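Hi all, a correction to my earlier message: I attached the wrong file for COQ7 protein. Here's the right sequence:
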Amino acid sequence: LPAGGASLRLCSSRAAQEGINRPVIDRIIRVDHAGEYGANRIYAGQMAVLGRSSVGPIIQQMWNQEKDHLKKFNELMVAYRVRPTVLLPFWNIAGFVLGAGSALLGKKSAMACTVAVEESISEHYNNQIRTLIEEDPEKYKELLQVIKQFRDDEQEHHDIGLEHDAEATPAYSVLKTAIQLGCKAAIFLSERI
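and the right structure:
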């Protein structure tokens, strides 16, 4: 089940998927799976460094939600027969390095990383919601429900980062901009490759 208790019942039969915009759905599920995979690796890196610190339980709580998100996108990939991005091995390493690297700079830097990533992902999910509504909100009702719930969770993580002094990080705007540029590149590549 996705966070928030939303259920998604999908049939992997071709009949259940008639009339969907296959390229749009493939792209959405592929990139969201990659994003949730990357988020899991970021939180794993942060926990490796800060797991025993005062922010460890907060990072763990956010990571647990990301694990639920990844589980749901794993299920959606099977249900919709979408192949993962070939970049998963790279996102595995890059995500962990980003998480651990930001955490090595301190708790505030780890939270700045969270703010930057989650803001990018919330914006990305909002764009997908608009796309699916323009396509056919009734046809994609269940997928929209999942994406909206996950967007809300990501926004909550963003706000948690701000509450834990992300903006007090030295060179916060530079760090945030660099991470968000990386997120945009990751989104662009994962949608296509």
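Sorry for the mix-up. The radius of gyration is 17 Å.
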